[in-house]
Amino acid sequence: MKTKYLHFNERDLDTAGRLIRKGELVAFPTETVYGLGANALDLQAVSKTYAAKGRPSDNPLIVHIYDKSQIYDIAEQISDDARKVIDDVMPAPITIVLPKRAVISDTITAGLPTVAIRMPLSEEARQFLRAAGVPVTAPSANISGRPSPTNWQRVKEDMDGKISAVMCGEPCRVGIESTVLDLSDEPRILRPGAVSAEYLSRLLGKQVYVLNDPTSKVNSPGIRYRHYAPKVPMVLEQNDDVEKLCRYFDEKTAEGYHPVLWVHEPLRFGGRNAVEMGLDDGDVANKMFETMRKLETQYDFIIASFCRRSPCYDGPAGQGVEDRLIRACGHTFI
């Protein structure tokens, strides 16, 4: 298949919309990461998504919309808490989980009675979704398990020749996937992102918990399997312990590796290969996946350090960053 590279003009948006309605796959930018779009009402199109990504079919998909009114077409029950999030927060880097209508196939929800719905903040994303004219499923536009793409060039690396088109838009501003908020019962966060539990707790006037048990989060996309992993080994240190990090770096060097420290304030590491992770949690989120893809081409072992308790990283995106790093290293800590 020859993949088309389209732009955000009237002609190309019309082309992208027609491709979606014909059952083809089109990648498009959102504020979080690039999504791999398919017509949510066409099961054959949805199945192409699993094939292109190599994604397990028991992993639910998020349905993307451009207008809030579409939520009522695909969700069966909408609680008062859900209405408040819809009215006061969306569009935003957030996905809400609600009981589904029959129009949404069990194939999309992995057999679950709930559907994950997202209205992107990105104007480009909503332009594309409006051109499609149908609800669109859209996991990240990468090979399953790899770092998510935050620009169209990374989509091309993973998807060229596998999908019909890529919308070449702006780099993704947030850089990590959306917060997934389950509103099918009492509010709980199934996947942390840039919209924090603290903010949602204030909004709803009740405690919104982040679930930490992977076996409890089966109704959320992006949590059941190892995700975001670079091609080289990666470990995570969570206390910003410079001495420990230097010692581990030296051990890996003695073993014959060409390692890199991915850390806060690289100058503290005495001339060892070190790359800055970011100035604050939002900065880390914005460039995390892109940096991961660059480091895997320059080094053969990544030693990452992220301490969410530190003042510079204790912000709205901190828990989402920590979650992605833990999954990227396969829960391998030092």
Question: What is the compact description of this entry?
Answer:
With 334 residues, the protein is α/β, with parallel strands linked by helices. It has eleven helices and 15 strands.
Please summarize the sheet with the most strands.
Answer: 11 strands, mixed
Examine the secondary-structure arrangement and name the CATH architecture of the largest domain. Alpha-Beta Complex
Helical residues, percent = 25-40%
* CATH class call of the largest domain: Alpha Beta
Average pLDDT? 95
* Annotation, overall tally of beta strands: 15
Q: Are there runs of 5+ residues with pLDDT below 50, and where?
A: none
CATH-defined fold name of the largest domain: DHBP synthase
Strand content: 15-25%
How far apart the termini lie comes to: 44 Å
Oligomer type:
single chain
Strand order of the largest sheet: 1-8-2-3-7-4-6-5-9-10-11
What is the CATH homologous superfamily assignment of the largest domain? Answer: DHBP synthase
Radius of gyration: 20 Å
**How many domains is the backbone divided into?**
2
